[in-house]
Automatic annotation (TrEMBL):
It comes from Thermococcus paralvinellae. Transmembrane segments: none annotated. This is Metallo-beta-lactamase superfamily protein. Pfam families: Lactamase_B_2. The lineage of its organism: Archaea, Methanobacteriati, Methanobacteriota, Thermococci, Thermococcales. Coiled coil: none annotated. Residues 36-220 form the Metallo-beta-lactamase domain.
Length: 251
């Protein structure tokens, strides 16, 4: 099965306008260092995880139909591209009630009536929709409701942490449900963790070691993090992967 990391960046993307840090300068010069906002596509079930503000650009390159949309949380970098989905007739949205309501509101505000379906997921239980999904909460202030997903398709399991503070390291339930998945897509926003907000490099690696996924990809990387090469060097001994935009991951 193939999973596509459409966007590997965090809220401001790389390059961030007016920023002259090493990552931003390089990304302006060389497109392979550009990071659009975080988003993932699973072709097998035509599922998009997080409609990023760069969704038009993602869809333009992907050129595939979207039928399901999972939303980790309602921060703009994870949901603001939603109106770009207007080209698709039938979509089912899956998230916690809070994000589902924001999604519905964006649809009504920008697109009016639609034949789309919204499925509110309670945290910490499995659902079976032909594929299985489990939504677990994360600590990610200032938003009150944020979470990650474990999605099971046939015999393959994919975990996405969504945005999370380092508190996830002591969340036994989240670690247990992600344990041994075929693919872990974890956030690694900054060099250092910010309590209750985002993971830094060291804590993201510790999380991956606890989860013991068959394959681990780090994404949602800020322009202010280390360079791609430095990050690759830091995870190399563990065999982990640092995402780039439009990276194909085979599981
Ligand atoms: Zn984010
Ligand atoms: Zn920068
Ligand atoms: Zn966020």
């Amino acid at each position: 099965m193939r999973v596509i990391i459409l966007g590997s960046g965090s809220y401001s993307g790389t390059p961030k306008p007016l920023c002259n840090c090493e990552n931003c300068v390089r990304a302006r010069k060389y497109p392979q260092y550009k990071r659009t906002r975080f988003s993932v596509f699973i072709p097998e079930i035509k599922a998009l995880i997080d409609p990023s503000p760069d969704l038009h650009y993602h869809l333009e390159h992907l050129n595939m139909e979207v039928k399901k949309v999972f939303i980790t949380h309602a921060h703009f970098d994870h949901i603001a591209g939603l109106p770009e989905l207007q080209i698709f007739k039938e979509i089912k949205f899956y998230s916690h009630e809070y994000a589902v309501n924001v999604a519905k509101h964006l649809q009504e505000l920008f697109l009016g009536e639609r034949d789309w379906r919204y499925i509110s997921l309670e945290f910490n239980r499995w659902y079976d929709f032909g594929f299985k999904v489990y939504h677990f909460p994360t600590v990610h202030q200032p938003i009150e409701v944020a979470g990650g997903f474990v999605i099971e398709i046939g015999k393959k399991r994919i975990a996405v942490t969504g945005d999370t503070g380092p508190e996830i390291l002591s969340d036994k339930n989240a670690i247990e449900v992600m344990k041994g998945v075929d693919l872990l897509i974890a956030e690694m926003t900054h060099k250092q963790s910010i309590p209750k907000t985002h993971l830094g490099v060291e804590d993201a690696i510790t999380l991956a070691q606890k989860v013991e996924a068959k394959k681990t990809v780090f994404a949602h990387i800020s322009h202010s993090n280390y360079t791609q090469e430095k990050l690759e060097e830091l995870v190399r001994e563990h065999g982990y992967i640092i995402a780039r935009d439009f990276m194909y991951v085979e599981i």
